[in-house]
Amino acid sequence: MQRSIYLTFLLSSLLACPPVGAAKSALASEKPETAMCIVPAKPGGGMDLTCKLAQQATASQHMQISYLPGGVGAIAWTTIISQRKAEANTLVAYSGGSLLNLAEGKFGKSDASNVRWVAAIGTDYGMIAVRKDSPYKNLRELMDAIKSKPASVAIGAGGTVGSQDWLKMAQLGKQLGIDSKAMRLVAFEGGGESFTALLADHVQAVSGDASEAALHAREDKIRVLAVLSDARLPGSLAHVPTAREQGFDVTWPIIRGVYMGPQVSDRDYQKWVSYFQQAMTTPAFDEQRKIHGLFPFAMTGKELTDYIQKAVSNYRLQAKEFGMVR
Q1: Which residues on adjacent β-strands are paired with residue 207?
Q2: Which residue has the higher pLDDT, 69 or 44?
Q3: Distance (Å, rounded) from C-alpha 188 to C-alpha 210?
Q4: pTM value?
């Protein structure tokens, strides 16, 4: 009960700012517990952005961020379901890519029911980018170059063959008759590493996420060739055409959020579900989501759990098309 009062106080003071005298009184002798948000990748990518948004929504001074890369999310997943399964204040970031890896069997024999899905706090979209000085001015030019000489264009991606970044390129390539297995994909642990490699000219293109690209686009060092959304995105990438505008009927929405261990108590799980439900209705949270390059998508608890079960099934169908399901 005291922790519930404390979280209510945090929400009201940080986001809504109503009178908080009663809450302050109740908390006068209580030391706040520290929560943890695990980024299952290296710093600088979309998973990092997810935890930072969760951190700001939950009063940053009381949520730490920890990095646990490996297996494109597999190490963090295995750690939570086997060693840290009942930690009441540990959240783990996930994305649509996590669900794809789950669908393809890259998390072992696990399925979506092995964790407790807390919240989806925003959506992102796939994108394709090159360096600012690249000879490729649009998506068609890049894909034509890949079709002509697949080995001449190294594509940075978060994850190996079968990852969401690979699958985006495979779907684009299919529309030009490009053999997906002939593409030269260079795997990294998350989008942060992919963009570092692009800027160092170790790869010629990056298949990644719009939120990651928006951060680098501000520095005017990259050129985003296409966003994989239904319509052009607002904000810093508003000038970037969609893949559909350039003749490629490919979209790739990416939900982002957090999950918890399978043995977290119903009470603690519902505490976090309720917290995010309330936080995501506030203008302050919406503003932070925009700052982090994400777009509105809010879902929690059972509704989210049902949504994810369906999403994993859909990803499995897409992956089977390219022979990626183990």
Answers
A1: 128, 157
A2: 69
A3: 17
A4: 0.77
Q: What is the DSSP string of 248-313?
A: -----EEEEEEEE-TT--HHHHHHHHHHHHHHTTSHHHHHHHHHTT-B---EEHHHHHHHHHHHHH
Q: Could you tell me the two tokens for 266?
A: 């119903």
Average pLDDT, the chain: 87
SS3 assignment, position 88: coil
Is the pLDDT score of 195 beyond 60? yes
Is the predicted pLDDT of residue 158 greater than 60, yes or no? yes
- Confirm if 231 and 310 have CB atoms less than 8 A apart: no
How far is CA 8 from each of CA 11, 37, 51, rounded to the nearest angstrom? Answer: 5, 19, 20
Q: How far apart are CA 255 and CA 97, in angstroms?
A: 9
| pLDDT, tens digit (0-9, with 9 covering 90-100), for 129-140 | 999 999 999 999
Residues counted in the chain? 326
Strands (E), 138-286: 154-158, 184-188, 205-209, 222-228, 253-260
For residue 47, give the amino acid letter.
Answer: M
Q: Is the dihedral of CA 88, 212, 120, 255 positive or negative?
A: negative
**Percent of the chain beyond pLDDT 70?**
89
Are 228 and 139 in contact, with CB atoms under 8 Å apart?
no
Please state, in angstroms and rounded to a whole number, the distance separating the CA atoms of residues 169 and 129: 12
Measure CA 173 to chain center: 23
CA angle (251 as vertex; 245, 257 as ends), nearest 5 = 140
Distances (CA, A) of 181 to 153, 164, 173: 13, 15, 10
Q: Which residues contact 173 (CB under 8 A, 6 or more apart)?
A: 143, 146, 147, 179, 180, 183
User: Is pLDDT larger for residue 178 or for residue 323?
Assistant: 178
